[in-house]
Write a structure and sequence with these properties.
The chain is an all-alpha fold and 89 residues long. It has one domain (4-87). The chain is built from 5 helices and no strands. The two termini are 38 Å apart. The relative contact order is 0.07.
């Protein structure tokens, strides 16, 4: 038979795991994370464009950075459609 102490320990572990998962989800959807990724992408592209001598490299680096940021956005209406029509089946 399972003891009360064992169940309490399991419940405490589940609560800790849930807090970690909630924190991870909050980080994944945070504006700060998206901003940091966009800035890092921009600086990497600027460096690469500068090395290969692309004219107007600071301005030209905005294009791939914007494309990357747009590709990582969660579009709520598409997500809702996907969950309802594809994932739930």
């Amino acid at each position: 038979m399972v003891s009360i102490e064992f169940l309490q320990k399991e419940m405490a572990e589940i609560k800790l795991r849930n807090k970690r998962v909630e924190a991870d989800k909050a980080w994944e959807t945070s504006f700060i994370r998206k901003l940091i990724i966009a800035l890092m992408t921009y600086f990497v592209v600027v460096l690469f464009f500068w090395i290969i001598k692309v004219p107007y490299f600071l301005l030209n680096a905005l294009v791939p950075t914007a494309g990357f940021v747009l590709s990582t956005l969660t579009l709520p209406f598409i997500k809702k459609f996907w969950i309802k029509n594809i994932y739930s089946k």
